[in-house]
Amino acid sequence: MKLYYSPGACSLSPHIVLREAGFSFELQRVDLQAKKIKPGGDDFWAVNPKGQVPVLQLDSGEILTEGPAIVQYLADQKPASGLAPANGTMARYHVQEWLNFVTSELHKVFAPLFRDTTPEAFVKITRDNLANRFAYLDKHLAGKKYLMGDQFTVADAYCFTIVNWTKYKAIDLAPWPNLKAYMDRVAARPKVQEAMKAEGLIK
Prior knowledge:
Blueprint: E1 2-5, H1 12-21, E2 26-31, E3 36-38, E4 42-43, E5 55-57, E6 63-65, H2 67-77, H3 90-110, H4 120-140, H5 154-163, H6 177-187, H7 190-198
Parallel strand pairs: 1-2
Antiparallel strand pairs: 1-5, 2-3, 3-4, 5-6
Helix pairs in contact: 1-2, 1-5, 1-7, 3-4, 3-5, 4-6, 5-6
């Protein structure tokens, strides 16, 4: 398998899952600004017409895009990993619920902060919206290790990846101590450390 990624982007989520599940895989870095594959400069549009990471290329050559779909696929290939509950169970639907929450209420809400053209007034609205989402997460995580309780799942890999963007946008998590403790807990996981080191995010 091959994961097309950009350092620190949402592709960090399936990168973490690949390592947590014990897959053998290859990393392929993408320059998202130029839409070029590094090294070599091949056209990334030819790999993914959406122009976005993550992209998972299977050994068969088939391409899978969209982070939540990729991480569920990976978890289903390694059910013993516990990264996703069995299909058809309520626990699985709750993991999907969290993946959808992160996609719509965190990932997409963050997007305007990464665009230089976003008006300052909308930047404030975006930060206020994120604060509301962080407050919800903080309340949910009270007394819990992870989103689903004691078990780390693909939803945690995604949530950690997106909330970690607060570091790049000078958002202090101190007002949400449960969320801050959760982020520290996930960041300390050995496979998360491996993924972040491989992407050059930490030393």
